[in-house]
């Protein structure tokens, strides 16, 4: 794990484990939820949430459950994405996928349980922070908007529909903005919103989020072609098999990387407003550009 | 539609339609969400929410979006329950199920989108009622608890696992309490919680909810054997085919109906504390006992 992600991984993982130590629930669903959430992963989105919260001297203890809820939502989306009816993937985070381990019915229920549980976690957290409840509700709504039909889900629909199609750069960007970008942006903004931020801070972090979101997806698609399946813990070469239209399909690898570099610079420039506090997110932007290669 | 359910159906349906008039989302997911939510249905759970809210002179406009969110959550659970990997049902509310209409991938995403959207709706509603935000959060958490791994989802797990098994009455009750009872109870309590109720009111409504929840499921299972598939708008006789263990399997139809009658009396008695305001929920309990036969 690169150092920049190491900083918060332990407190995120410890809290996730605590939260998922569920009592009086069906044992198979408890296992399935724990299996997928604790299978590893970079914890990128919760880290973004905590780092964004820290931009305005937030309190990591206050945003930690929102960060964990975001990771739980991300995990649910992977569990459902991997289903036979969707991407039909057998390997995720280096391990057999949920439906391979628990069967398809439990994998559907596991995703449902995780999504719902994320909201339970955030609501309980909000009730514990009664003096800042309005900000908590805004942060939760930001997460929900990124995860839902206005965000990630519309992106996944585009992804399904576009298989075998040829897209323009604008169309491709739009799918990416929804599919990956929306949750990345929401992870950041929800952390910031707990601090009752001025609009210019929200705007700056939105620019940062949009740009690292796009970079993340471009790099993901490039790695699907040139990456090391063992290092990445998932089946690669799937985009070609499933005829998914990506930045490398449109521009080739070299130009795609050039675009990713430009986007990263735009992201980093947007952080200027936060002064030296922007250091962590700057490092993270470069990590996303250079990850696993 | 029986008169007791008629009272709030129109405002529920009108509001659901407004809420689901989504802009800038993927057209197929918008269609799929609208298709399943607007396919009809008795709107029992949102009606329970509004009636419970009215017990303590609540404000129907304030709880209406919670009521709608509950119906949206109920619909998501049906969409996923009907999937080939789950109950594999082709017919629901008298119409082809979501995966028959839109394909399996979109049916998975439609369920996900609906569940997430329910929380978006409730959070926006809470933000509009800033002076009562604490009660809104408690009401939302009640809904989330009923819908999630502590409630409905653990019930669905039990349902899958118990196919072909023989259960005791206690085991069967436990599955029912989770699968159907939890959401019915949460529908009621979330409506009440907006009024900052005394504990004795919560307790009374919990007794009512547990008893009508069990009655609802017993009648459902009896109707699966003796009901009219056309009237009910779904495939019947499925419990036998799938070897689902139910109250009629355990006790036969006559004794099952006797239990349902007893439970209904217990439910109605619990409403005494609310005086004449309990009239609507009393009528509803008898409707549940006598529905569609």
TrEMBL record, chains A, B:
GO terms for molecular function: (2E,6E)-farnesyl diphosphate synthase activity; metal ion binding. Its EC number is 2.5.1.10. InterPro entries: Isoprenoid_synthase_dom_sf, Polyprenyl_synt, Polyprenyl_synt_CS, Prenyl_diphosphate_synthase. Gene3D superfamilies: Farnesyl Diphosphate Synthase. GO terms for biological process: terpenoid biosynthetic process. Its cofactor is Mg(2+). It holds the Pfam family polyprenyl_synt. The keyword Transferase applies. Keywords: Isoprene biosynthesis, Magnesium, Metal-binding, Transferase. It catalyses: isopentenyl diphosphate + (2E)-geranyl diphosphate = (2E,6E)-farnesyl diphosphate + diphosphate. One of its GO terms (cellular component) is cytoplasm. It comes from the Bacteria. Belongs to the FPP/GGPP synthase family. PANTHER family: FARNESYL DIPHOSPHATE SYNTHASE. This is Farnesyl diphosphate synthase.
